[in-house]
Amino acid sequence: MSISWSLPLALVLASADIAPPPTTADAALDQAPATDVEEPREVADEPVDPMFAAVMAALDDEARAALAELDEAAMSSLLDRAQRGEPLTPVEEKIASAIRKAAIDTFDAGLGYQRGDVTIRDGLAVLHLGDEFRYLGPADAERVLTEGWGNPPGSETLGMIVPADLSPIEPLRGWGVIITYSEEGHVSDDDADEIDYDELLSQLKEGTEAGNTSRTAQGYPAMHLVGWAEQPRYAREIHSLYWAQELEVDGAPEHSLNYAIRVLGRKGVLELNAVSGIGQLAAIRPEMEKVYALVEFNEGNRYIDFDPDIDDVATYGIAGLIAGKVATKVGLWAGLMKLLIAGKKLLIFLALGLVAGAKALFGRKKAE
Fold first, then answer.
1. Helix and strand numbers, DSSP H then E, in the chain
2. Which helix or strand (DSSP H or E) is residue 350 part of?
3. Residues sharing a CB contact under 8 Å with residue 323, sequence separation 6 or more, in sequence order
4. Is the pTM of this model over 0.70?
5. For the chain, what are the domain ranges?
6. pLDDT of 127-180, one tens digit each?
7. What is the CATH number of domain 113-337?
Protein backbone atom coordinates (compact mmCIF):
# COMPACT_ATOMS: atom_id res chain seq x y z
CA MET A 1 0.00 0.00 0.00
CA SER A 2 1.44 3.34 -1.01
CA ILE A 3 0.63 6.16 1.39
CA SER A 4 1.81 9.76 1.37
CA TRP A 5 2.79 11.08 4.77
CA SER A 6 3.09 14.83 4.04
CA LEU A 7 2.58 16.94 7.13
CA PRO A 8 -1.06 18.08 7.45
CA LEU A 9 -0.82 21.86 7.94
CA ALA A 10 -4.34 22.25 9.30
CA LEU A 11 -3.65 19.62 11.96
CA VAL A 12 -0.38 21.31 12.94
CA LEU A 13 -2.06 24.66 13.43
CA ALA A 14 -4.94 23.18 15.35
CA SER A 15 -2.61 21.21 17.61
CA ALA A 16 -0.40 24.24 18.24
CA ASP A 17 -3.46 26.35 19.08
CA ILE A 18 -2.20 29.34 17.08
CA ALA A 19 -3.65 31.44 14.31
CA PRO A 20 -2.20 31.11 10.81
CA PRO A 21 0.42 33.77 9.97
CA PRO A 22 -0.71 36.51 7.58
CA THR A 23 -0.31 35.64 3.93
CA THR A 24 1.94 37.65 1.60
CA ALA A 25 -1.17 39.08 0.00
CA ASP A 26 -2.41 40.29 3.39
CA ALA A 27 0.87 42.08 4.08
CA ALA A 28 0.80 43.76 0.69
CA LEU A 29 -2.74 44.93 1.29
CA ASP A 30 -1.61 46.79 4.44
CA GLN A 31 1.29 48.59 2.74
CA ALA A 32 0.29 49.35 -0.86
CA PRO A 33 -2.34 51.65 -2.35
CA ALA A 34 -5.65 49.98 -2.96
CA THR A 35 -5.37 50.46 -6.73
CA ASP A 36 -2.13 48.43 -6.83
CA VAL A 37 -3.43 45.46 -4.86
CA GLU A 38 -4.58 42.23 -6.45
CA GLU A 39 -7.40 40.33 -4.84
CA PRO A 40 -5.89 37.79 -2.42
CA ARG A 41 -6.07 34.25 -3.75
CA GLU A 42 -7.49 31.50 -1.59
CA VAL A 43 -4.92 28.87 -0.69
CA ALA A 44 -6.33 25.40 -0.23
CA ASP A 45 -5.46 23.65 3.00
CA GLU A 46 -3.10 20.72 2.66
CA PRO A 47 -5.06 17.46 2.84
CA VAL A 48 -4.90 15.61 6.13
CA ASP A 49 -3.86 11.99 5.74
CA PRO A 50 -6.83 9.99 7.13
CA MET A 51 -4.73 7.44 8.97
CA PHE A 52 -2.41 10.05 10.50
CA ALA A 53 -5.40 12.08 11.64
CA ALA A 54 -7.14 9.01 13.08
CA VAL A 55 -4.11 7.97 15.12
CA MET A 56 -3.43 11.47 16.43
CA ALA A 57 -7.09 11.95 17.33
CA ALA A 58 -7.07 8.70 19.31
CA LEU A 59 -4.02 9.65 21.38
CA ASP A 60 -3.76 12.01 24.33
CA ASP A 61 -0.93 14.56 24.59
CA GLU A 62 1.33 12.18 26.50
CA ALA A 63 0.98 9.41 23.91
CA ARG A 64 1.48 11.86 21.02
CA ALA A 65 4.71 13.07 22.58
CA ALA A 66 5.88 9.48 23.12
CA LEU A 67 5.11 8.66 19.48
CA ALA A 68 7.26 11.59 18.38
CA GLU A 69 10.22 10.15 20.30
CA LEU A 70 10.11 6.76 18.52
CA ASP A 71 12.48 6.00 15.68
CA GLU A 72 12.08 3.16 13.16
CA ALA A 73 13.76 0.57 15.36
CA ALA A 74 11.74 1.56 18.43
CA MET A 75 8.47 1.44 16.49
CA SER A 76 9.30 -2.01 15.10
CA SER A 77 10.17 -3.22 18.60
CA LEU A 78 6.94 -1.83 20.03
CA LEU A 79 4.77 -3.54 17.42
CA ASP A 80 6.79 -6.75 17.81
CA ARG A 81 6.11 -6.83 21.53
CA ALA A 82 2.45 -5.97 21.03
CA GLN A 83 2.15 -8.73 18.43
CA ARG A 84 3.61 -11.30 20.81
CA GLY A 85 1.32 -10.22 23.61
CA GLU A 86 4.15 -9.00 25.82
CA PRO A 87 3.39 -6.46 28.57
CA LEU A 88 3.32 -2.84 27.40
CA THR A 89 3.23 0.37 29.35
CA PRO A 90 -0.12 2.19 29.29
CA VAL A 91 1.27 4.73 26.82
CA GLU A 92 2.74 2.02 24.57
CA GLU A 93 -0.59 0.19 24.59
CA LYS A 94 -2.38 3.36 23.50
CA ILE A 95 0.05 3.86 20.61
CA ALA A 96 -0.04 0.23 19.45
CA SER A 97 -3.84 0.06 19.63
CA ALA A 98 -4.31 3.34 17.77
CA ILE A 99 -1.91 2.32 14.99
CA ARG A 100 -3.45 -1.12 14.62
CA LYS A 101 -7.00 0.21 14.41
CA ALA A 102 -6.12 3.04 12.02
CA ALA A 103 -4.12 0.77 9.72
CA ILE A 104 -6.90 -1.78 9.53
CA ASP A 105 -9.62 0.84 9.06
CA THR A 106 -7.61 2.55 6.32
CA PHE A 107 -7.07 -0.71 4.45
CA ASP A 108 -10.66 -1.89 4.86
CA ALA A 109 -12.06 1.42 3.64
CA GLY A 110 -10.64 0.65 0.20
CA LEU A 111 -12.35 -2.74 -0.07
CA GLY A 112 -15.77 -3.33 -1.63
CA TYR A 113 -17.46 -5.70 0.80
CA GLN A 114 -20.69 -7.37 -0.36
CA ARG A 115 -23.37 -8.94 1.81
CA GLY A 116 -26.42 -11.15 1.44
CA ASP A 117 -26.71 -13.58 -1.49
CA VAL A 118 -23.79 -13.20 -3.91
CA THR A 119 -23.53 -14.94 -7.28
CA ILE A 120 -20.04 -15.97 -8.37
CA ARG A 121 -18.40 -16.94 -11.68
CA ASP A 122 -21.13 -15.80 -14.05
CA GLY A 123 -23.93 -17.70 -12.35
CA LEU A 124 -22.01 -20.85 -11.44
CA ALA A 125 -23.02 -20.75 -7.77
CA VAL A 126 -24.49 -18.60 -5.01
CA LEU A 127 -23.03 -17.74 -1.62
CA HIS A 128 -25.75 -17.33 1.03
CA LEU A 129 -23.76 -15.10 3.39
CA GLY A 130 -26.50 -14.08 5.80
CA ASP A 131 -25.54 -11.52 8.45
CA GLU A 132 -22.37 -13.23 9.63
CA PHE A 133 -20.15 -13.08 6.55
CA ARG A 134 -19.05 -10.70 3.79
CA TYR A 135 -17.69 -11.30 0.31
CA LEU A 136 -14.79 -9.68 -1.53
CA GLY A 137 -14.63 -9.99 -5.31
CA PRO A 138 -11.51 -11.25 -7.14
CA ALA A 139 -9.83 -7.81 -7.33
CA ASP A 140 -10.30 -7.03 -3.64
CA ALA A 141 -9.32 -10.57 -2.66
CA GLU A 142 -6.11 -10.05 -4.63
CA ARG A 143 -5.42 -6.90 -2.59
CA VAL A 144 -5.85 -8.81 0.67
CA LEU A 145 -3.65 -11.65 -0.57
CA THR A 146 -0.85 -9.40 -1.83
CA GLU A 147 -0.91 -6.17 0.19
CA GLY A 148 -2.41 -7.58 3.38
CA TRP A 149 -0.99 -11.10 3.56
CA GLY A 150 2.21 -10.75 1.54
CA ASN A 151 1.48 -13.20 -1.28
CA PRO A 152 2.98 -12.74 -4.74
CA PRO A 153 0.52 -11.25 -7.25
CA GLY A 154 -1.37 -13.34 -9.78
CA SER A 155 -3.49 -15.69 -7.65
CA GLU A 156 -6.57 -16.55 -9.67
CA THR A 157 -9.49 -16.70 -7.26
CA LEU A 158 -13.24 -16.23 -7.35
CA GLY A 159 -13.01 -13.99 -4.32
CA MET A 160 -12.94 -14.36 -0.57
CA ILE A 161 -15.42 -14.90 2.28
CA VAL A 162 -14.58 -13.05 5.51
CA PRO A 163 -16.35 -12.59 8.86
CA ALA A 164 -18.77 -9.68 9.03
CA ASP A 165 -17.19 -8.26 12.19
CA LEU A 166 -13.47 -8.89 11.66
CA SER A 167 -10.97 -7.58 9.14
CA PRO A 168 -9.02 -10.24 7.22
CA ILE A 169 -5.78 -8.37 8.03
CA GLU A 170 -6.31 -8.25 11.80
CA PRO A 171 -2.98 -9.61 13.13
CA LEU A 172 -3.26 -13.19 14.41
CA ARG A 173 -7.07 -12.97 14.49
CA GLY A 174 -8.08 -12.14 10.95
CA TRP A 175 -8.93 -14.90 8.51
CA GLY A 176 -10.64 -15.38 5.19
CA VAL A 177 -11.86 -18.20 2.97
CA ILE A 178 -10.27 -18.20 -0.49
CA ILE A 179 -12.61 -19.41 -3.25
CA THR A 180 -11.34 -21.13 -6.40
CA TYR A 181 -12.91 -23.45 -8.96
CA SER A 182 -11.36 -26.52 -10.55
CA GLU A 183 -13.11 -27.82 -13.67
CA GLU A 184 -11.46 -31.20 -14.17
CA GLY A 185 -14.60 -33.22 -14.62
CA HIS A 186 -17.33 -34.73 -12.48
CA VAL A 187 -15.88 -36.26 -9.30
CA SER A 188 -17.37 -39.62 -8.36
CA ASP A 189 -18.07 -40.09 -4.65
CA ASP A 190 -18.24 -43.90 -4.82
CA ASP A 191 -15.12 -44.26 -2.64
CA ALA A 192 -16.29 -41.90 0.10
CA ASP A 193 -17.13 -44.68 2.59
CA GLU A 194 -14.01 -46.75 1.93
CA ILE A 195 -11.20 -44.28 2.73
CA ASP A 196 -8.62 -45.13 5.40
CA TYR A 197 -7.86 -41.64 6.71
CA ASP A 198 -4.86 -42.75 8.79
CA GLU A 199 -3.21 -44.18 5.70
CA LEU A 200 -4.19 -41.11 3.71
CA LEU A 201 -2.57 -38.89 6.36
CA SER A 202 0.71 -40.79 6.04
CA GLN A 203 0.65 -40.29 2.28
CA LEU A 204 -0.07 -36.59 2.72
CA LYS A 205 2.86 -36.16 5.11
CA GLU A 206 5.21 -37.81 2.63
CA GLY A 207 3.87 -35.70 -0.22
CA THR A 208 4.20 -32.48 1.78
CA GLU A 209 7.84 -33.20 2.62
CA ALA A 210 8.59 -34.10 -1.00
CA GLY A 211 7.03 -30.82 -2.11
CA ASN A 212 9.37 -28.74 0.04
CA THR A 213 12.11 -28.93 -2.58
CA SER A 214 9.87 -27.09 -5.03
CA ARG A 215 8.57 -24.68 -2.41
CA THR A 216 11.97 -23.59 -1.16
CA ALA A 217 13.29 -23.31 -4.73
CA GLN A 218 10.54 -20.77 -5.40
CA GLY A 219 11.47 -18.79 -2.31
CA TYR A 220 8.68 -20.06 -0.05
CA PRO A 221 9.25 -21.55 3.41
CA ALA A 222 9.15 -25.31 3.86
CA MET A 223 6.04 -26.69 5.54
CA HIS A 224 5.41 -29.90 7.44
CA LEU A 225 2.06 -31.62 7.98
CA VAL A 226 1.59 -32.29 11.69
CA GLY A 227 -1.76 -34.08 11.43
CA TRP A 228 -5.50 -33.70 11.07
CA ALA A 229 -7.00 -30.78 12.98
CA GLU A 230 -10.30 -32.29 11.86
CA GLN A 231 -10.50 -35.65 10.10
CA PRO A 232 -12.15 -35.47 6.66
CA ARG A 233 -15.85 -36.12 6.38
CA TYR A 234 -18.08 -36.23 3.35
CA ALA A 235 -21.72 -35.11 3.46
CA ARG A 236 -23.28 -37.13 0.67
CA GLU A 237 -26.60 -35.31 0.86
CA ILE A 238 -25.00 -31.99 -0.12
CA HIS A 239 -21.98 -33.47 -1.95
CA SER A 240 -19.49 -31.54 0.18
CA LEU A 241 -16.16 -32.59 1.67
CA TYR A 242 -14.62 -30.99 4.73
CA TRP A 243 -11.31 -31.38 6.57
CA ALA A 244 -8.66 -29.42 8.47
CA GLN A 245 -4.91 -29.86 8.85
CA GLU A 246 -2.32 -28.59 11.28
CA LEU A 247 0.90 -27.52 9.56
CA GLU A 248 4.26 -26.26 10.73
CA VAL A 249 5.78 -23.59 8.49
CA ASP A 250 9.45 -22.73 8.80
CA GLY A 251 9.83 -19.26 10.30
CA ALA A 252 6.20 -18.89 11.39
CA PRO A 253 5.58 -17.96 15.05
CA GLU A 254 3.01 -20.74 15.50
CA HIS A 255 1.58 -23.73 13.68
CA SER A 256 -0.91 -23.05 10.90
CA LEU A 257 -4.49 -24.21 10.66
CA ASN A 258 -5.63 -25.10 7.14
CA TYR A 259 -9.35 -25.63 6.63
CA ALA A 260 -10.51 -27.07 3.32
CA ILE A 261 -14.03 -27.39 1.95
CA ARG A 262 -14.82 -28.97 -1.42
CA VAL A 263 -18.28 -28.60 -2.93
CA LEU A 264 -18.83 -31.02 -5.81
CA GLY A 265 -20.66 -29.81 -8.90
CA ARG A 266 -21.65 -31.10 -12.30
CA LYS A 267 -18.34 -30.46 -14.07
CA GLY A 268 -15.94 -29.53 -11.31
CA VAL A 269 -15.33 -28.60 -7.70
CA LEU A 270 -15.59 -25.34 -5.78
CA GLU A 271 -12.59 -25.11 -3.44
CA LEU A 272 -12.79 -23.07 -0.25
CA ASN A 273 -9.59 -22.76 1.77
CA ALA A 274 -8.97 -20.90 5.02
CA VAL A 275 -5.63 -20.42 6.78
CA SER A 276 -5.05 -19.09 10.30
CA GLY A 277 -3.01 -19.82 13.40
CA ILE A 278 -3.68 -23.11 15.19
CA GLY A 279 -4.54 -21.10 18.28
CA GLN A 280 -7.71 -19.98 16.54
CA LEU A 281 -9.05 -23.52 16.10
CA ALA A 282 -11.73 -23.20 18.77
CA ALA A 283 -12.93 -19.86 17.37
CA ILE A 284 -12.83 -20.78 13.68
CA ARG A 285 -14.27 -24.31 13.88
CA PRO A 286 -17.89 -23.17 14.40
CA GLU A 287 -17.48 -20.47 11.75
CA MET A 288 -16.28 -22.96 9.16
CA GLU A 289 -19.22 -25.19 10.00
CA LYS A 290 -21.40 -22.31 8.82
CA VAL A 291 -19.32 -21.69 5.69
CA TYR A 292 -19.69 -25.39 4.90
CA ALA A 293 -23.41 -24.89 4.31
CA LEU A 294 -23.59 -21.51 2.58
CA VAL A 295 -22.36 -22.53 -0.91
CA GLU A 296 -24.92 -23.68 -3.47
CA PHE A 297 -24.44 -24.50 -7.15
CA ASN A 298 -27.11 -23.02 -9.39
CA GLU A 299 -29.43 -25.24 -11.40
CA GLY A 300 -27.60 -26.72 -14.36
CA ASN A 301 -24.31 -26.76 -12.43
CA ARG A 302 -25.38 -28.98 -9.52
CA TYR A 303 -23.95 -32.42 -8.83
CA ILE A 304 -27.28 -34.01 -9.70
CA ASP A 305 -27.25 -32.27 -13.09
CA PHE A 306 -24.37 -34.49 -14.28
CA ASP A 307 -25.01 -36.05 -17.70
CA PRO A 308 -22.71 -39.04 -18.34
CA ASP A 309 -23.36 -38.81 -22.06
CA ILE A 310 -21.82 -35.37 -22.48
CA ASP A 311 -19.91 -34.48 -19.29
CA ASP A 312 -16.30 -35.43 -18.56
CA VAL A 313 -15.44 -37.49 -15.47
CA ALA A 314 -12.49 -36.64 -13.22
CA THR A 315 -9.66 -39.16 -12.95
CA TYR A 316 -9.84 -39.14 -9.14
CA GLY A 317 -12.45 -39.66 -6.45
CA ILE A 318 -12.90 -38.29 -2.93
CA ALA A 319 -9.55 -39.61 -1.64
CA GLY A 320 -7.74 -38.17 -4.63
CA LEU A 321 -9.51 -34.87 -4.11
CA ILE A 322 -7.79 -34.62 -0.72
CA ALA A 323 -4.43 -36.17 -1.52
CA GLY A 324 -3.93 -35.03 -5.08
CA LYS A 325 -4.18 -31.30 -4.45
CA VAL A 326 -1.48 -30.87 -1.80
CA ALA A 327 1.37 -30.18 -4.19
CA THR A 328 -0.53 -28.37 -6.93
CA LYS A 329 -1.14 -25.04 -5.22
CA VAL A 330 2.45 -24.35 -4.19
CA GLY A 331 2.38 -20.60 -4.71
CA LEU A 332 -1.03 -20.02 -3.15
CA TRP A 333 -0.52 -22.31 -0.17
CA ALA A 334 2.99 -21.30 0.73
CA GLY A 335 2.04 -17.67 0.36
CA LEU A 336 -1.10 -18.00 2.45
CA MET A 337 1.02 -19.14 5.36
CA LYS A 338 2.48 -15.64 5.46
CA LEU A 339 -0.84 -14.50 6.94
CA LEU A 340 0.58 -15.31 10.35
CA ILE A 341 3.26 -12.62 10.10
CA ALA A 342 2.14 -10.31 7.28
CA GLY A 343 -0.24 -8.32 9.45
CA LYS A 344 2.65 -7.08 11.56
CA LYS A 345 4.70 -6.16 8.49
CA LEU A 346 1.84 -4.08 7.11
CA LEU A 347 1.42 -2.28 10.43
CA ILE A 348 5.15 -1.50 10.64
CA PHE A 349 5.14 -0.10 7.11
CA LEU A 350 2.23 2.19 7.89
CA ALA A 351 3.56 3.06 11.33
CA LEU A 352 6.88 4.35 10.00
CA GLY A 353 4.99 7.12 8.26
CA LEU A 354 3.37 7.98 11.57
CA VAL A 355 6.80 8.31 13.14
CA ALA A 356 7.84 10.81 10.50
CA GLY A 357 4.55 12.67 10.73
CA ALA A 358 4.61 12.84 14.52
CA LYS A 359 8.19 14.11 14.58
CA ALA A 360 7.34 16.79 12.04
CA LEU A 361 4.24 17.77 13.98
CA PHE A 362 6.03 18.14 17.30
CA GLY A 363 9.07 19.74 15.71
CA ARG A 364 6.80 22.40 14.24
CA LYS A 365 5.10 22.98 17.56
CA LYS A 366 8.42 23.45 19.35
CA ALA A 367 9.63 25.85 16.68
CA GLU A 368 6.48 27.90 17.03
1. 12, 10
2. helix 339-367
3. 200, 203, 204, 207
4. yes
5. 9-108+345-367, 113-337
6. 999 999 999 999 999 999 888 887 778 888 999 999 999 999 887 788 899 999
7. 2.60.120.1690
